[in-house]
Protein: Glutaredoxin
Organism: Paraburkholderia elongata
Amino acid sequence: MNKVIMYSTQVCPYCQMAERLLKSRGVEHVEKVLIDKEPARREEMMTRTGRRTVPQVFIGETHVGGYDDLSALDRAGGLMPLLEAA
């Protein structure tokens, strides 16, 4: 299964929903980058994604986006193939 990285904060409800969705699809570990604990990583997130809000989810090298993007990808049937790609 592809590695999942999520830029997040400690108190973000959308981040928690994104993690729940990923775990329901078989993801055992989500590597969380907490930008509220590591402020320098916020700049990294903004550079990588062009976005300021969390969550920002990466599956492998693919930037999926935020929770709404992740949820839409799942509904469209695209999440599992992306997770399972080697």
User: Anything to note?
Assistant: The longest helix spans residues 13-24. The radius of gyration is 12 Å. The beta strands are 4-8, 30-34, 56-59, 62-65. The chain has four helices and four strands.
